[in-house]
């Protein structure tokens, strides 16, 4: 069975849209109104559910094993809901959970982190492993955030900022190997 699935009624079914060179592991699931930008990758056991709102993922973004990406649906308690928007050159760590939030470009989401509804992570941020970003919180560009709930720990060094593009390029290289070995389109 394909890891890419439509969701919705027969008239408005939405299928995931993949950019050029995208790798989606057969053991992951991508459902509904999801767009994956060029050279992005989705690794084993990741779940991306755009079933009740949209998910937009930029270029060269890696969704690691066991990550869960979902939205907040529109309803009586949140009129517009919250889509999930993720920028370019983002590395989303193993078992991270992103729910109805906005993540800028050049961001590292640490292993097991949780980012809740309406939260905004600006560009050039490191969110430490196990961190919790509460609903509606905004993380300022250029800092490391740690803890649950997360707090600004310190400014990022130039070397740490360079890591964003290195990490993204490393996963592009790895997914290209998988695409070649497994003959995916």
TrEMBL record:
UniProt cross-references to Pfam families, sorted A to Z: Hexapep
UniProt keyword Transferase present: yes
UniProt keywords, alphabetically: Transferase
Signal peptide limits: none
Compositional bias segments (type: Basic and acidic residues): 1-14
A single GO molecular function term of this UniProt record: transferase activity
Residues covered by region (Disordered): 1-20
Coiled-coil stretches: none
Plastid as UniProt keyword: no
PANTHER family attached to this UniProt entry: DYNACTIN SUBUNIT P25, PROTEIN YRDA
Name listed for the protein in its UniProt record: Carbonic anhydrase or acetyltransferase, isoleucine patch superfamily
């Amino acid at each position: 069975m394909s890891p890419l699935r439509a969701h919705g009624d027969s008239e408005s079914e939405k299928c995931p849209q993949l950019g050029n060179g995208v790798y989606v592991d057969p053991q992951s699931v991508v459902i509904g109104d999801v767009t994956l930008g060029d050279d992005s990758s989705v690794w084993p056991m990741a779940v991306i559910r755009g079933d009740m709102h949209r998910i937009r993922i930029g270029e060269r973004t890696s969704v690691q094993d066991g990550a869960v990406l979902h939205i907040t649906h529109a309803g009586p308690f949140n009129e517009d809901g919250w889509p999930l928007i993720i920028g370019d050159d983002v590395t989303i760590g193993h078992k991270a959970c992103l729910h109805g939030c906005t993540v800028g470009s050049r961001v590292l989401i640490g292993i097991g982190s949780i980012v809740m509804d309406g939260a905004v992570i600006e560009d050039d941020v490191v969110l430490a492993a196990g961190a919790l970003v509460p609903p509606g919180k905004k993380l300022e560009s250029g800092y490391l955030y740690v803890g649950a709930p997360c707090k600004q720990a310190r400014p990022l060094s130039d070397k740490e900022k360079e890591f964003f593009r290195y990490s993204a390029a490393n996963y592009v290289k790895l997914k290209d190997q998988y695409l070649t070995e497994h003959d995916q389109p």
